[in-house]
Amino acid sequence: MSIEVRNVTKTFGPFAALRDVSLEVQTGELVALLGPSGSGKTTLLRIIAGLEVPNRGSVFFHGEDATDRRVQERRVGFVFQHYALFRHMTVFENVAFGLRVMRRSVRPAGAEIRQRVHRLLELVQLEWLAERYPTQLSGGQRQRVALARALAVEPKVLLLDEPFGALDAQVRQELRRWLRRLHNEIHVTGVLVTHDQEEALEVADRVVVMNAGRIEQMGTPEDVFHHPANEFVLNFLGHVNVFHGRAEGSKAIFGTLAVDFPDAPPTGSLELRGFVRPHDLELDRTPSADALLEGTIVRIHAAAPQVKIEVLSTAGESIHVESSQERYRAQGWSVGQRVYVRPREIRVFGNGQPARPATPRRTDVVGMSSET
Amino acid sequence: MASAPAEIAIPPAAARATAEPALVRRVLIGVALVFLGLFLLLPLATVFAQALERGVATYFAALTEPVAWAAIKLTLLTAAIVVPLNTVFGVAAAWAIAKFEFRGKSLLITLIDLPFAVSPVIAGLIYVLLFGMRGWFGPWLGAHDIQIIFAVPGIVLATLFVTCPLVARELIPLMQAQGREDEEAAVVLGARGWQTFWRVTLPNIKWGLLYGVILCNARAMGEFGAVSVVSGHIRGLTNTLTLHVEVLYNEYNFAGAFAVASLLALLSLVTLAARSLVEWKTQRVSAVERVTDEH
Fold first, then answer.
1. Is the predicted ipTM greater than 0.85, yes or no?
2. B179 Cα to chain A: minimum distance (Å)
3. Pairwise CA distance, residues A190 & A175, whole Å
4. Domain boundaries, chain B
5. CATH 3.40.50.150 fits domain B55-294
């Protein structure tokens, strides 16, 4: 079932949680709402579920207006961050709850409920825990029970609110892959809320980046990662180095580096910011025309798939560089060495005023890239 | 009763590190015991000793004489009306306060606390002023031949007023701590209002509710001040147990007064035991949750 959110605005007192947000989710798609806390992503999810009523705007399920439909009638599955399992019921009874509260005319018979619950517990690989109570389970197990419970009523839409937020990193990794596999299997339309960009990029078919009650960008994971629409998205999707520069003539000047910059203003100079991801930075022993600045290696963290090198520039900025293990070993870097930092790709944004990451606006995106 | 989870939680080394020297410990425990003995156990023992002073036969005679029996029945009747009403009110008020946002919420919380702040005698007087012969509704009630003051309805009303915060006060913090998520989960799964209440909310609060009901019952049966004002002390008709004790005592019938008092004391002991049991049960539940949450 497809979901459409049209021009939804929601305020809590003076705080605007959502400002005129519109979003479409296709049938069978898994969409991630990604953003920092307070960006409105959970509010949007709760409005889709019917747990919150929008001040303005509407929600459509499969083309039908569902804005005024009651929660009970929306047939959505909702998975809460803190599981919200009924602690006085066994795992079995938790999963069976949605079936047991159905109207008598549509409620399945006892034997069928048993069968369906066991099938669901099998699906989440927890059949052996059916008679346990939630307090006797680990966090990851509880979240899988919560998922089975949500799926029991055969929802047309599955909504997940930071489902792995309360779990430790390893369990999170595991559950993330498992969720992706599960989604491929049952193919229910899904919306997942997360503040973890890695999670969103890995699990979702499409990522919606939100900030301050607005949608900043929508697109496939590759799209938003490789072609961020603005500074906020760029900043939010992983670590990024920021360099300050100026536009002069048709060039953008960053330290000792000048790159082509066709959108220069007719008069005066424009302040610019250049963004480079750590893995797009190279280190050289000798200066070159493409080098951005000079610095000293202050820290090397090599106990990871990617070697992380921190360089302190002569101007006192801290720059993060990532390099593959092979390259790092071939180049033989050590702490204290003088290096020249050279970007392979630099994204330039400028709007004539200082960057305000809290309220980024999509004005004057004069971005371009310079391949070396 | 708190020692079981505490022993699990604190490793022996840590317990030793924070412990006081043995002498200090013994003196503190000694002081507490002497205090308890003087001010609690001794009076309690006196009640039973005095009650049985003239023998078991007198004791039971004092309890089974018609006037005493009427007082027992009146007390039980009052509790039987007041406790269910306050339970319903307490659950409704706590639910509204903990699960919804609305205007005047803090005013409601303050109002619920009002009976605690007001002296019981004043509480009784309020009803006399409202429903007494010369009160606001007095003439109308008189014309329709309805008697509230110096009758059973007045006693019930006064007791209701005095005990109304007990259940709500017990439930509000509990329900606030539990939040709305469980109910939201139930509603999303298709449960209607009553189903959510019976299947999710009530089981979540049952121990706190029971605790509140026990306290409410104890207070309803033991209330003296407010009831004394509205009762009129009509023997065999409007005397509750506490009032009956006073009457007997004022008549220098000490054996009878203490015999009836021993009934009330017994009630407190039963209440205490029930309370401890419920407390032990809730602590065990939350201890289990705490231990498993750390996994």
1. no
2. 10
3. 15
4. 1-51, 55-294
5. no
